Predict the structure of DUF5666 domain-containing protein.
Amino acid sequence: MKAIVPIALATCLLASCGEKKEAAAASSGSPTAAPAAPSAEVTKVTSTAPSGTAQAIHTVRTTAKPGDTITISGKIMGNASPFVEGRAVFILGDPELLTSCDEIPGDKCDTPWDVCCEPAEEKKQGTATVQIVDAEGRPLKEGVKGVAGLDHLAKVTVTGKVAEGSSADLLVVNATAIQAGK
């Protein structure tokens, strides 16, 4: 009986590691899977260069009001799934406040974009939700992961209007220009 418990525990731990790696692979997508062609609306936003000087998310979120035009920069990170499946929405994290796990020496995290080592309050203060919306202000019903360089941990600059309902606790930006790699 004593030998069965360590074997069962080891089996559970191995299964957990496998599940996490499978979840990481699923969230990062298959390297061979090509995203569907983006719509004209997404292409317009991702091919427009942001304007103005990019500011840190943690400073903008305390002063920006709905309707303000802002430019922010950061990395796509902030939780285990920074892209919303089937919607033109992602989370942008502030590298001045958050450190992704890939920048922590010796960290072997399978999902470094989840910033799992950061306290919840830091994540709250250091993230913004970026969305591309239709004429009625609703997020477009298409994913943007893989479009124009948008991927986990990609450096991104965004210009857009602060969405209605946005607050110092939850910064939501309706993007008019997105550029990855800057």
